Amino acid sequence: MKFKNIFKSKNTMNAENQDKEQEIDDATLEANANGEQLIVEELSVEEQLTQDLAAEKDKFIRLFAEFENYKRRTAKERIDLFKTANQEVLLALLPVLDDFDRAMIEISKSGDESLLKGVELIHEKLKTTLASKGLEGVEVKAGDSFDADFAEAITQIPAPSNDLKGKIVDVVEKGYKLGDKIIRFPKVVIGQ
């Protein structure tokens, strides 16, 4: 009797193993029919945890790098914003500065030294204040070669001499820049 029970239990275990193997073979056949290959691999708990840890580390490193790039980009944008924050106010003051320049020329023609000295002081104070806020003049003068990146040609006239062809003949309006950015291009006349 004992012999029969052992024999029966061995047969039962063999039948179960055969059923499992048949299921795996059926799955392999189905996968091969679909053009896929099924690899049955059992991972130990340690291997699974190691793989999960590696995946999480990779995700963390990528997220950290993305955050560092974000911080760097926003810091650069903030610095650029601070550099050009005064741009609208300075643009509004440029016509006043132009009027001061014209007034200086006319007052110097009048010959009144005390009036000229007083207006010069106010003019210099305004220029110094604007320069402290980052405003600089764009240096172009008659005789310089014309560069469309730094000046705006408003007209062309016949060149008074051959050496002024394609060059600046006259500066009609001064140009200004704020930091590295030109906020108003100088208006020039070029010779042809």
How would you describe this structure to a colleague?
This is Protein GrpE. This protein has 192 residues and is α+β, with helices and mostly antiparallel strands. It has three domains: 44-83; 94-133; 135-192, Roll (Nucleotide Exchange Factor Grpe, Chain A, domain 2). Helices cover 60% and strands 15% of the residues. It contains four helices and six strands. It has helices spanning 2-33, 45-83, 87-110, 113-132, and strands at 135-138, 152-157, 168-173, 175-178, 181-184, 187-191. The strands form two sheets. The protein has a three-stranded antiparallel β-sheet with strand order 1-4-5. A three-stranded mixed β-sheet has the order 2-6-3, with no helix packed on it. α3 runs antiparallel to α4 (113-132). Mean pLDDT is 81; it is low at 1-13 and 36-40.
Largest sheet: 3 strands, antiparallel
Shape descriptor: elongated
Which ranges are low-confidence, i.e. pLDDT below 50, for 5 or more consecutive residues?
1-13, 36-40
What is the string of SSEs from the N terminus onward?
HHHHEEEEEE
Fraction in helix: 55-70%
**Assembly state (oligomeric):** single chain
CATH class category label of the largest domain = Mainly Beta
Strand order of the largest sheet: 1-4-5
Number of helices: 4
InterPro entries: GrpE, GrpE_CC, GrpE_head
Main location: cytoplasm
GO molecular function: adenyl-nucleotide exchange factor activity; protein homodimerization activity; protein-folding chaperone binding; unfolded protein binding
Pfam families: GrpE
